[in-house]
Inverse folding.
């Protein structure tokens, strides 16, 4: 219920990929990424405030290994699926509304702002959405917002790795 990169509290950040969510949690795949603007989300229903979309590469998906010797396995995602978003706008907006309600609930319990980190799932058979876990966000929400730190590189360095953080 917060932008995990910048700490911006007026956006819900949603990551999505095919299969079980462990690949997203572990950073094993580049998921689709969406930002939903909170102030217009809960207001008039005519607004659909999806303010940014990034198509992830979603190279593979974690699935149950039925009949195999392990519980799960990674399988490649078909190229056509990789080139489209893996979640609909309606589902995104529903997840964002739930994120706001969950944040409001726990903020009320704590009597203080409580941005939340949630995990969600979509049933591959029924299409039903579920929130499977919710816990307080512990990185951006704890940063001091009245301090500006500036860092300067003394010299250019070698690029070691590229990609998006999750």
């Amino acid at each position: 219920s917060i932008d995990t990169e910048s700490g911006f509290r007026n956006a819900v950040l949603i990551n999505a990929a095919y299969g079980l969510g462990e690949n997203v949690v572990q950073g094993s795949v580049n998921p689709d990424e969406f930002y939903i603007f909170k102030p217009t989300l809960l207001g008039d229903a005519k607004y659909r405030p999806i303010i940014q979309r990034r198509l992830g590469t979603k190279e593979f998906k974690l699935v149950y290994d039925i009949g195999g010797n392990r519980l799960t396995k990674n399988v490649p995602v078909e190229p056509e699926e990789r080139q489209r978003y893996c979640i609909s706008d309606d589902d995104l907006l529903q997840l964002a509304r739930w994120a706001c309600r969950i944040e409001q609930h726990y903020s009320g319990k704590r009597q203080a702002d409580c941005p939340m980190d949630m995990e969600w799932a979509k049933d591959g058979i029924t299409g039903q959405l579920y929130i499977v876990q919710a816990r307080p966000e512990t990185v951006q929400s704890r940063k001091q917002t009245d301090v500006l730190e500036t860092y300067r590189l003394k010299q250019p360095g070698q690029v070691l790795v590229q990609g998006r953080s999750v």
